[in-house]
Amino acid sequence: MARIIAVANQKGGVGKTTTAVNLGASLALAGRRVLLVDMDPQSNLTSGVGRKGQAAPVGSIYNALVGDCADLAPFIIPTAIENLSLVPADRNLTGAEIELVALPNRETRLRRLLRPAVDGFDFVLIDCPPSLGLLTLNGLVAADAILITLHCEYYALEGLAELVTTLRRVRASLNRDLDIEGVLLTMYDERTNLAQQVARDIRDFFKEKVFRTVIPRNVRLGEAPSHGLPVILYDVKSRGAEAYLALAREVLARTNTQLVPGP
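Below the sequence we write its predicted structure tokens.
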């Protein structure tokens, strides 16, 4: 059974898409079958794996969410990376927040679509938009766990309280089994006192839920999306690539799996 992880934080610019792309690619290159689901209208996840403007004949995630569909499988397309597949997004998804309001089961539509489609995968990573609207809510309801990406700055701590409140509400009413996969510190600069203080505060609050792996500020991580490549394929020796490979090992260890090629 696939492990479904929503990568979420209502604050923008904290590395959600970068993490979904590079963690997904690292897991795929380790032999795990990975499905990426782009739930962000900006569709940066789609372009980050070189599939900008591409979709299955039946359409993108927008068509799946607002249409009368029972299975996400027809919307899945391959990427250039073995074991890595994608449900792409496009600009039409912008209107989904409004259209979903009038639809039945508006909070659970992604979960219903994913259930019959995930049997062939080990991991499903859902890239949520920087908001706490219906698209993010669908991601949280469909997920087994949430991976919270956190930029090491003061404002990130303020937004985190709101995200935790939303998480509790989702657990109470829509997905009581939703767990915290982990908190990932991103864009970390060990030279600054603020980054070190924020990291200490987060580790004090979330304890063992904080990943040991920290994603550093890295130029290659910023360059790779413009080439439609995960950083591990753009520059495998960069600090960013090494960090996401370490994160993949840690995720696999948390799911009692070793980082070795699968069958």
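The chain has a mean pLDDT of 91.
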